């Protein structure tokens, strides 16, 4: 599925299929609940779509026409991998038996990596690499109503639509689609969806796969200062606040805070599972490392014009309480879609994340799980509320941003903004702008804390 019409609930998960045959564009409804309509008539069979035809999928009107080239974005042929059967470096070519030390047709093009989701596939037949320049692919056996990209038809332990793999930015996810024999990730049965790293082994039937995404650009070595400073004791593989498909949300005055050295999954698993039922769930739809905020454009032109004035206002705040009040009352002036705002601070002595200021008067919500993850990996997140089919408990906030406040390696707090409009979504520029302000506030908060400590002595 290459066109995501979320959050239109009248659109089925796999709603319709469009394809190019010669010079003609065809559309087929895949048994959707609401149907597909062409020029006001419900589509009952695959038909040719003329350039001036009006196609309605749920509440979305589309125009389908032949592209300038019969290739997909990025040069991948229709329904085919970017490069079929690429031989990974360092492995023998099973068709030729050539020496593995010889150069192979690796996933590069003129010295550049191939853009897309890369799959290292191992079956009884051997090993190979597949690359798909798509945001989402399906693993299974040939299916009349669903395109299967990784076809394992010879393996009867693989269901027709067995698993879904997709990427968000540079992160790959895998989800088992209620298959008969299940999906294993590093030997553990997969329940729902989870992030997979390049070294993770995903087993479907008798096949073993590894997934990674490449954006097609040459990797540039990071400067030492660009690497997030995560304590050595905070290994990602044993982090209780791991990457999830969606996160629970709560409404409390304060939240328990776990120091960087106290975030091991083995220590906190029982604590996190014993919590009360959440108010709802949110799903990240964007993320940006603190070191990347400036590279992402640092917000809109309007924001950049206001930035010098914002710096002066932050400088004039007399203490951290004044900073918090300034933020929650003024953020909508430069981030116009922010309907709600909250300023959380970390109380290291009490081991709590405390709410210092918020607007409006209603108590704000927070996913402290995602908040801890934002602090741990030095990353800001944009999020949206999950659909009704995933969580019946609804939030009045439909989208939001979480930005950690960190200075000199010290975790100081969290900035949160939310939009209550239906279908709301914050952009990467919105996230970058809030992160720039977050870094300015982090410096100011740390300065006031140091001044208070000196005064106390």
Based on helices, strands and strand pairing, what is the structural class? alpha+beta
This entry's quaternary arrangement is single chain
Number of helices: 5
Range of helix content: 10-25%
Count all strands and give the number. 28
Low-confidence sequence ranges: 68-112, 218-235
Largest sheet: 8 strands, antiparallel
Q: Mean of the pLDDT scores?
A: 80
Approximate shape:
globular
Distance between the termini: 63 Å
Radius of gyration: 25 Å
**Going across the major beta sheet, what is the strand order?**
21-23-26-27-28-24-25-22
Description of the molecule:
By secondary structure, this protein is α+β, with helices and mostly antiparallel strands. It contains 5 helices and 28 strands. Strands 21-23-26-27-28-24-25-22 form an 8-stranded antiparallel sheet, with helices on both faces. A 6-stranded antiparallel sheet has the order 11-10-20-19-16-17, with no helix packed on it. The relative contact order is 0.09. Mean pLDDT is 80; it is low at 68-112 and 218-235.
Entry keywords:
single chain; alpha+beta; eight-stranded antiparallel beta sheet; six-stranded antiparallel beta sheet
Short description:
The protein has five helices and 28 strands. The chain has 457 residues and is α+β, with helices and mostly antiparallel strands. It has an eight-stranded antiparallel β-sheet, with helices on both faces. The chain has a six-stranded antiparallel β-sheet with strand order 11-10-20-19-16-17, with no helix packed on it. It has a five-stranded mixed β-sheet with strand order 13-12-14-15-18, with no helix packed on it.
């Amino acid at each position: 599925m290459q066109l995501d019409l979320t959050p239109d609930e009248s659109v089925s998960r796999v709603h319709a299929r469009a394809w190019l045959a010669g010079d003609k564009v065809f559309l087929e409804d895949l048994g959707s609940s609401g149907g597909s309509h062409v020029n006001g008539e419900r589509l009952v069979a695959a038909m040719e779509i003329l350039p001036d035809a009006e196609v309605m999928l749920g509440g979305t009107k589309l125009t389908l026409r032949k592209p300038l080239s019969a290739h997909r974005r990025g040069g991948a042929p229709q329904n085919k991998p970017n490069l079929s059967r690429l031989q990974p470096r360092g492995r023998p070519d099973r068709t030729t038996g050539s020496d593995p030390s010889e150069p192979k047709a690796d996933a590069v093009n003129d010295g550049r990596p191939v853009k897309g989701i890369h799959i290292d596939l191992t079956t009884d037949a051997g090993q190979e690499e597949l690359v798909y320049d798509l945001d989402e692919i399906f693993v299974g056996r040939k299916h009349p109503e669903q395109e299967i990209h990784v076809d394992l038809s010879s393996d009867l332990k693989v269901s027709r639509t067995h698993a879904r793999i997709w990427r968000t930015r540079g992160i790959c996810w895998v989800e088992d689609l209620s298959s008969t024999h299940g999906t294993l990730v590093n030997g553990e049965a997969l329940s729902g969806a989870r992030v997979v790293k390049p070294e993770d082994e995903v087993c479907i039937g008798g096949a073993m796969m590894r997934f990674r995404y490449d954006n097609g650009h040459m990797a540039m070595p990071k400067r030492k200062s660009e690497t997030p400073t995560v304590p050595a004791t905070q290994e990602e593989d044993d982090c209780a606040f791991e990457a999830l498909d969606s996160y629970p949300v709560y409404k409390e005055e304060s939240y328990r805070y776990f120091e960087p050295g106290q975030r091991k999954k083995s220590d906190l698993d029982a604590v996190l599972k014993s919590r009360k039922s959440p108010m709802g769930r949110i799903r990240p739809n964007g993320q940006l490392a603190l070191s990347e905020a400036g590279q992402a454009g640092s917000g809109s032109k309007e924001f950049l014009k206001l930035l010098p004035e914002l710096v002066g206002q932050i400088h004039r705040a007399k203490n951290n309480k004044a900073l918090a009040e300034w933020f929650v009352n003024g953020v909508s002036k430069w981030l116009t879609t922010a309907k709600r705002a909250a300023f959380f601070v970390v109380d290291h002595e009490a081991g709590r994340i405390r709410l210092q200021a918020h607007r409006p008067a209603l108590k704000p919500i927070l996913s402290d799980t995602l908040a801890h993850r934002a602090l741990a990996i030095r990353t800001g997140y944009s999020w949206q509320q999950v659909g009704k089919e995933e969580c019946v408990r609804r939030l009045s906030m439909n989208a939001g941003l979480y930005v950690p406040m960190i200075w000199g390696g010290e975790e100081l707090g969290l900035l949160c903004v939310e939009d209550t409009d239906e279908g709301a979504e914050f952009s990467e520029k919105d996230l970058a702008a809030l992160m720039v302000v977050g870094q300015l506030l982090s410096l100011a908060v740390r300065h006031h804390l140091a001044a208070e400590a000196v005064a106390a002595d």
